[in-house]
């Protein structure tokens, strides 16, 4: 019989520690009992977010692989138009009315950005910035993991649009970039934590960590047992596997772009 032990810790490592370090032991990890595949509209939203961050990186990285601000704006408009209804439907899941409203407005108005007067453009960019900062604030204060997940999707839809809008309007971007980095870390660290996890001795020689995300997805990670409890890296692997259908993987990827 498996002897289950529950271990909760207060400190959760940031995104850079999500991978299992070399030499951590013979580890294997897989998602058990995965949830059904995401609906097509959510899959489309994820694809658009990934495309927007790719365009964002091409512009802000500059160099020989860079694109102009006008090219970035046009490509992002095309990406949004390819799945605008799905994007708005995802944003509508956000419980916070303020964030839901301003994120929808950013997505809808973004296509008209090139036609705005300089004054209106700066207003649009600053409103989009306020929306991102509000989402960041909520990501650090709300406690419901489902609400955190929905906010994570919203900030990753709205955030890069606000960055490009600020650049287009001639405004600075480092302050907003710092806000988005904080929001991504909050999403990563709070949508699933060690409190969602259980560890037990699978056999005399092995141990296993199981983590369950708020949506019911279970991730597991195991390794040879050497007479001591599992290290944090095993929890990180199991949490990563459990959160594959949340906004957390998008937040991890976004940090590499920001």
Descriptors for this entry?
258 residues, alpha+beta, 2 domains, five-stranded antiparallel sheet, disordered N terminus
Give an overview in words.
- It is built from 9 helices and 5 strands.
- Strands 1-3-4-5-2 form a 5-stranded antiparallel β-sheet, with helices on one face.
- Helix 2 runs antiparallel to helix 6 and helix 3 (84-91) packs antiparallel against helix 4.
- With 258 residues, the chain is of the alpha+beta class.
- The longest helix is centred in the middle third of the chain and has 24 residues, at 145-168.
- It is 55% helix and 10% strand.
- It is elongated, with a radius of gyration of 20 Å.
- Residues 1-37 have low confidence and may be disordered.
- It has 2 domains: 4-36 and 193-242, no CATH class; 40-191 and 246-257, no CATH class.
- A hairpin with a 5-residue loop joins strand 4 and strand 5 (218-224).
Question: In summary, what is this structure?
Answer:
Helices cover 55% and strands 10% of the residues.
List the helices and strands and how they pair.
Elements (H helix, E strand, L loop, with lengths): L3 E2 L21 E6 L7 H22 L7 H13 L2 H8 L5 H14 L7 H22 L5 H24 L5 H17 L6 E5 L4 E7 L5 E7 L7 H11 L5 H10 L1
Antiparallel strand pairs: 1-3, 2-5, 3-4, 4-5
Please indicate the percent range of residues in DSSP E strands (runs of 2 or more). Answer: 5-15%
Radius of gyration: 20 Å
Major sheet: 5 strands, antiparallel
Query: What is the arithmetic mean of pLDDT?
Result: 81
Low-confidence stretches: 1-37
Instruction: Measure the end-to-end span.
Output: 47 Å
What level of helicity do the residues show?
40-55%
- Oligomer type: single chain
The strand order across the widest sheet is 1-3-4-5-2
Find the count of extended strands (DSSP E, 2+ residues): 5
Sheet/helix structural class:
alpha+beta
Overall tally of domains: 2
Number of helices, counting only DSSP H or I runs of 4 residues or more: 9
Shape: elongated
């Amino acid at each position: 019989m498996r002897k289950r032990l529950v271990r909760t810790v207060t400190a959760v490592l940031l995104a850079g520690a999500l991978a299992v370090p070399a030499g951590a032991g013979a580890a294997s990890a897989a998602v058990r009992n995965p949830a059904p595949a995401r609906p097509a509209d959510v899959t489309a939203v994820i694809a658009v977010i990934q495309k927007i961050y790719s365009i964002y990186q091409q512009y802000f990285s500059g160099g020989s692989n860079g694109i102009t601000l006008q090219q970035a704006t046009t490509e992002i408009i095309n990406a949004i138009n390819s799945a605008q209804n799905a994007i708005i439907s995802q944003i509508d899941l956000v419980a916070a009315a303020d964030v839901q409203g301003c994120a929808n407005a950013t997505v809808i108005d973004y296509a008209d950005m090139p036609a705005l007067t300089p004054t209106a453009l700066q207003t649009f960019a600053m409103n989009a910035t306020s929306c991102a900062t509000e989402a960041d604030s909520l990501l650090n204060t709300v406690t419901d993991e489902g609400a955190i997940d929905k906010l994570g999707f919203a900030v990753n839809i709205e955030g890069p649009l606000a960055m490009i809008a600020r650049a287009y309007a001639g405004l600075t971007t480092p302050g907003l970039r710092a806000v988005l980095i904080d929001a991504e870390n909050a999403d990563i660290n709070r949508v699933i934590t060690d409190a969602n996890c259980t560890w037990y001795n699978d056999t005399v020689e092995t141990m296993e960590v199981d983590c369950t995300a708020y949506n019911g997805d279970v991730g597991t990670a195991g390794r040879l047992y050497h007479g001591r409890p599992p290290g944090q890296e095993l929890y990180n692997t199991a949490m990563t596997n459990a959160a594959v259908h949340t906004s957390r993987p998008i937040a991890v990827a976004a940090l590499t772009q920001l």
